[in-house]
Amino acid sequence: MAQWLIFGLLAAVSASFVTIFTKLGIHHLTPTLATSVRAMIMAVFLVIVSATKGDFGHLKELVTYKKDFGFLILAGISGALSWLFLNIALKTGKTWQVAPIDKLSVMMTVIVSILIFQEEITLKGIIGVILIAAGSLFVALA
What we know:
The protein is mainly α. It has helices at residues 3-25, 31-53, 61-64, 66-92, 95-102, 105-117, 123-140.
C-alpha cells in the first residue's frame, strides 16, 4: 500500500476522533475556549515531536523561505478558523450532520488544486468528488 494512502487513512481516523472528542469536550465550554485549549495542546504536542526529531535546527529556513512561511501563516489562520467554525457547529448541531458538511472541504480542495496547481483529474475522480459532495449533503440534510 502506498505511503500517502496509509498516512491519509491515519489522518482520516485522527480527524474523526477530533470531531468526536470535541463534541464530548465542548458540552460545558464555549466553542472559542474549546478551540483555544485544543490548539494549545496541539502546539505543545507538536513542539515535543519536533524537538524529539531535531527539527528546530531548521528554524533559519523560515527566514530564508519567507513565501513558504507566509503560506504557513495563512494555513494556520485557516486551520484555526476551520476549528472554530467546526466547534460552533458541533455545539449547536448534531455530530452526524456537522461532520459530512465539514468534509465538503474535500470537494473545495480538489477544485482549488485543479485551478491553482493545474493538477489533472480523471473522469473517475470527478465522479468521485461529485459523489462525496452529494453524499455529504444527503447525510447532513437527512
